[in-house]
Amino acid sequence: MLALLSEAPGRTLRMSALATQADGSLPRLSQVVARLEQRGWIAEATCCEVRIGLPDNQRMEYAVAEWRNKYRIASENPAKEDIVERLLEQHEDKNVLIIGQYLRQLRSIKKRFDLPLITGRLATGKPS
Q1: Sequence-ordered alpha helix ranges (H) in the chain
Q2: Considering only CA atoms, which of 82, 84, 86 is closest in space to residue 97?
Q3: In the 8-state DSSP scheme, what is residue 114?
Q4: If you count Cβ atoms within 10 Å of the first and of the last residue's Cβ in the chain, which end, N or C, has fewer?
Q5: Could you give the percent of the chain with pLDDT greater than 90?
Q6: What is the pTM of this model?
Q7: How confident is the model at residue 84 (pLDDT cuts 50, 70, 90)?
């Protein structure tokens, strides 16, 4: 598995791509990754989720939206960027990875904080 990663562009692969190339399953790969973290071969990460109330002007849109759109509205909550700023300040001495589902939100965070953005797109514009 480490050999596959070392040969990948940027030495990174999606977990699903790595599982496929290693002829394994995602659950099995997760177990292997956990053991590699424990042994110090790859960096361990601590994750947390922060939930934030919607601004008044978005509450009605959320209330009448279909379930799928409710998730997007909550995920793209602009108030989250202020929380991101506070978290970045609190952890300025650490490596921080911001994970998101919606590119519009991630692009806004990238622009506001001058951060790199990694997506599943190749230089050709096609998903990996």
Answers
A1: 2-7, 15-21, 26-38, 56-64, 67-75, 80-90, 103-113
A2: 84
A3: T
A4: C
A5: 25
A6: 0.56
A7: very high
